[in-house]
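>> received
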Amino acid sequence: MRLIGMLDSPYVRRVAVSLEALSVPFTHEAVSVFSTFEQFKAINPVVKAPSLVCDDGEVLMDSSLILQFIEATAANGRSLWSNDPKILQHQFRAVSLALAACEKSVQIVYERNLRPISAQYEPWIGRVSGQLLSAYGCLESEVRQQTALFSETKSQAAITAAIVWQFSQSMLANLIPANHYPGLADLSARMEKTKEFLKFPPIGPGV
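>> returned
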């Protein structure tokens, strides 16, 4: 299998780290949807990162669907999710908050960096920023209250929350001061020291 995309994309890095945590073999190809658009298009005409090229050549997209497919077909029974329904509910809550924060972070970054200043719509940016802060506020509460969910490094909740936090901090630290989110900051610092995170650092430029 081939994972296509740049590791400074939190979605690509999420897949890479998760596959490594599941001991699923794959190769990573650092192809950008911006600077190497045509190269990416030759692999996947939709030009969406991450893209997973399966062994038979079929291309899958969307980090959550890719990871669901991997656990169902290639993880040999290993999982980054709990079998306990109640714990699984908490994990889904945490990951959904992290992915919401990720989506809103990307929207703000694209608006600020790709759209001309004259075309930027501040009321919309304000609304998205509010959603981002709400998502991180709720996620911070989860990290501090549901400590068992995030104590295991090979957990999708811990992996996704840490990767998304690092991305937001790298791009929007002025909007999300780390000292306001000590639980997430501590989680990120701990996860970034694991072998899976160290093997796939958030190297750019370009997603």
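>> The two ends are 20 Å apart (CA to CA).
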